[in-house]
Amino acid sequence: MKKYSLIIIASVSLTMMTACSKGVNQKNGDPTTNPDSTNTAPTVSKIDTLPTNTPFKHPGLLLSQKDFDRIKTKVNASASPWIEGWNKLITNTHAQTNYTPNPVDTLIRGGSSREQPKPDNYSRAFNDVAAAFQLAVRWKITGDDSYAEAAIKILNAWAAKCKAISGDSNTALAGGIYGYQFANAGEILRDYSGWKQEDFEAFKQFMLNVFYANNHAFLSTHWGTCSSHYWANWDFCALASEMAIGVLTDKRELYNHAIYYLQNGIGTGNINNAINYVYGDSLAQWQESGRDQGHCTLDVALFGTICQQAWNQGDDLYGLDNNRFLKACEYVAKYNVASLEVPYTAYTNCEGVSNPVISSNGRGTVRPMWELVYNHYVNLKGLKATWTTLGAKSVRPEGGGGDYGPNSGGYDQFGFGTLLYSR
């Protein structure tokens, strides 16, 4: 595969890259019924990219139309655990049609700093995009257009007002996390007939100008630092956003770059750098394990998002390198949910910052992230995932933004996995 070259054009960053055809090593959706090992599904050794003129599947990010059809059938039948997940969603204050958007002209994360003296305002983004997503899901499941109208009101308001992201280095987190989230909300709503075409086009341009431009700049430069200066979650959120915006805007070159980077990038978003030690066939260590557990769980949430987005486009990142992600999930769940010890190998980054022992800081952090991973590996692929299963049970039914406190950590992932991903 040729290495991609990235070019910024005017105020909108676009990538021009050479793509090769889908390789024979790609395997997608091959289930196995052997529950005795995490290593019984066919392994994926490499995921190649498709030509840039290959169309995407829509809707095709965290949720496909097939997913919504399954969810709707289960909810209408009041089947458990979907109905419990549904009840969790519809009682969330963000999922109500009277939700009022609160956009800003400049989205600030890393404010009150040398780079941006004004204070942070990014809570307005994570609240509004959580609402847009929850309302969009309610529309898809009920068919009630009032939910779509309320969600589109939020997306149109942000597209009309927000022109930039500002702050210190943390702008990369704003561009990545809220980028993938706004793109997912827009992708769900793209087939709503009441969304005016000119408004949808304006929203897509907003995503390219404000969010993708930031993702591209960070992944290309890492703000002038060495390759492992930033922790894995920084790369992951930028890659999740780049991938999602690529699908939303039908720009496969963006999606292709994310797929390439996840396997070949020099940064911590490369799966081999992010999940940097594998212990046998059941556990694997995260690059952030010696930092704190709050960020290790964020790594699980963000990489799960990336894998699911790719899965709905036919790419099995879940299975990459002998289910490497599953082993890393088992590692985090064993240490954080089961409160058992795990092996650890000392880590030092490119600047000599060292983590000699695993960190207990934030141990037991709760995020609504386990259902996605559990249902894919256990219920779809038939693999054994002892500790991930325990994690899913510990938070069932999963809530979402607004159910896990007022701070950003409760909004970094959409959640509601019991409703959305149960099989």
Runs in which pLDDT lies below 50 for 5 or more consecutive residues are 1-37
CATH homologous superfamily title: Chondroitin AC/alginate lyase
Q: Name the beta content range.
A: 5-15%
Compute the CA-based radius of gyration.
20 Å
Structural class: mainly alpha
Beginning-to-end CA distance, first to last residue: 36 Å
In which order are the strands of the major sheet placed? Answer: 1-2
Query: So what's the overall shape?
Result: globular
By CATH reckoning, the class would read Mainly Alpha
Give the overall average pLDDT. Answer: 92
Count of alpha and pi helical runs: 14
Number of domains: 1
Q: Strand tally, please?
A: 8
| CATH fold title | Glycosyltransferase
- CATH architecture label name: Alpha/alpha barrel
